[in-house]
Amino acid sequence: EAGVVQSPRYKIIEKKQPVAFWCNPISGHNTLYWYRQNLGQGPELLIRYENEEAVDDSQLPKDRFSAERLKGVDSTLKIQPAELGDSAVYLCASSLKEASNTEAFFGQGTRLTVV
Amino acid sequence: QKEVEQDPGPLSVPEGAIVSLNCTYSNSAFQYFMWYRQYSRKGPELLMYTYSSGNKEDGRFTAQVDKSSKYISLFIRDSQPSDSATYLCAARSGGYNKLIFGAGTRLAVHP
Q1: Which of A36, A72, A99, B102 is the most buried (most CB within 10 A)?
Q2: pLDDT tens by residue, A18-36
């Protein structure tokens, strides 16, 4: 069974440019998460989806970040415009709703560098 | 103060050593405690999961939670070079609340 798939793996952009990340969760997983992991830090939740509904986006910087999960499967996370401080690894994770986020499976992440 | 504190290391040990990794937390509402392993340029993978206080063993790994002192530990016996990774502790309260991660401890096991 395929795990959580993210693309691209790496992205380098200039500040003020837009960028988008894509995530395909494990088949059948209703819950999808986007985390940001800064260098030398643990992941921090940005947004959690239950199917297509964003149920926790309290940590998402809504002035420049947006996310969507159309049809409750794949998800995209967008930053516009990007700032230098957005350089980080963006991780997508998914879990069965019943298992809660203690059993979330993570993708390999997208490493974003803003120059 | 962060809700979950973890010494970033790095920790370097010889192969075969017993490794002790530790975290402290401040939120008394935390009930679920996890250890994730993260290899370089990979996503975290769940290693151990513990509910409330007590010990849990899985092969060479033992997770320990002491809620009275708000202390979380992971012990690795007979450490192997393949155990070299960053170990992240995480915790959450009951219900459907988000995981709070520690900063991670980088472990290097040398042959």
Answers
A1: B102
A2: 999 999 999 999 999 999 9
